[in-house]
Sequence to fold (315 residues):
Amino acid sequence: MSTPLGLLDRRLLIVTGKGGVGKSTVSAALAECAAARGRRTLVCELDAKGDLARILGTDPVDYSGREVRPDLVAMTMDTEQSLAEYLKVQVKIPFLGRIGPLARVLEFVATAAPGVREILTIGKLAWEARESDYDLVIADATATGHIVGQLSSPAAIRDLVRLGMIRHQLDWMLELLEDPSKTSAIVVATPEEMPVVETMELVGRVRDDTHIDVGAAVVNRVLPAPFTAAERPVFDTLAAIAPEEDCSPPGFFSAVEATTHALRRREVGSSHLRRLREGLPKGLPVLLLPEIFDAAATHGGIDLIAAALAAEANW
Ligand SMILES: Nc1ncnc2c1ncn2[C@@H]1O[C@H](COP(=O)(O)OP(=O)(O)OP(=O)(O)O)[C@@H](O)[C@H]1O
Ligand SMILES: [Mg+2]
Fold:
């Protein structure tokens, strides 16, 4: 059965956004949601920092990947190993042992053909999405600047390569990457000034410089409302009690002050969120994820965030 928004029905989701906004957290939550719905899922951390495994509550994972839950495999990208695999599986180079350390080969190839390093990353993901028995591949991608180069590399290289096997491989890769029913980028932001500005720029660049669909924006760490709109007048009445009227229980004024501060932070966040909504393409789904105050929830217990994502996306 297909899922609302269709995101979990894609073959490849590329999660990107400014540094520290929650890309690994959102990738892990998406992967949990997909696996829980019976989609066999591969989630891959591209920057090899190890955050993804930590968030999933598992030991570090490497390029070969490991099943961390039923239907959920996690791995870490390694361009050198991706090159070795490519040469072995695709080119069937018999003399690999004799051409020297792979890192040097990679360096040489990357200098000779810009974009090769990028394509080894996106190519591996596309390969897993196409050839393995995964229903969905999720890339926990690098921060903003790099990703547009990675996403546009197959098209750039296709323009250089006209014939032969590589051209054929680029064609199927582009067919996967450029089909919005198969591949989408998901941009993550937080309701703060710089992440909002960078997210709007990033969405513009993905749309202008690549042919890859942007499937949704996720705004992470949205502060929950401390009370409902109907309860607000009660708080305002309490907050209006002047400190001189010292008839209140101990701690009353500091509690009022802390709540006022939280409300102000939320209002600032809301204004950034409004700006983001206005700046994003019309019709792009915007999913909100709450700030989670329980530290364990983002360190090995991703369930709360996955549940919030599922509720928000109506999965
Ligand atoms: N909704 C949330 N509530 C509370 N803390 C969160 C939430 N989302 C993420 N965090 C915390 O924010 C920090 C950054 O999250 P994460 O590692 O997912 O970001 P990232 O975008 O992948 O970062 P990087 O750019 O360094 O890879 C982590 O410590 C994580 O626990
Ligand atoms: Mg990360």
Observations:
- The beta strands are 12-17, 41-45, 66-69, 72-76, 136-143, 183-189, 213-222, 286-290.
- DSSP finds eleven helices and eight strands in the chain.
- The pocket of magnesium ion (ligand 2) is lined by residues 23-24, 51, 140 (CB under 6 Å).
